[in-house]
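for the writeup, i need someone to sanity check this before i put it in the appendix. the sequnce is what the collaborator sent (i think, or maybe the updated version? ugh). structure was predicted straight from it, no edits. if anything looks off just tell me and ill rerun, i have time this weekend
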Amino acid sequence: MTGDDSSTNHNCSTPRRHQEENKPLVHSRRSKEILGTMGRSSSSSSHSLAGEWHSTHSCGSCWYNGTWVISFDSRNSDHQITISEQSGVCCGCCPNLCAKSGSLAHKMDKKGENYWEGRLGGKTISLQVITETELRHLTTDGMCTLTRA
């Protein structure tokens, strides 16, 4: 083992080696069972994701709660998705002063059934459908769980 282990990240972000594990589950049989009818129709089911979602992320004694809004580019059906942070609080008292909205919003392209991916600030961002009421959102700050607001 060398002194510079680039596969390990010692802050609250998702370590690089774990990002491989966070790739979409869309090709697994179990994922399709979980999604049920949601995995069968692409644009109508994807558009049911549009709207407000509650986001949570925890890392040790620090945690994040926020509200994000999902929208679709109407010209491209469900192939382009935008997720904008409306508000967020870290550790219960520190508001997020630089919300991920406008030019910092998470803009992603569809890469698979119920999976979108993009880049922001040189980092990969993604959205994966887990169930109709739960999503996995990889942000530039780590993995968040989105639930219906």
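The longest strand covers residues 62-72. Helices lie at 16-19, 29-35, 42-47.
thx in advance!!
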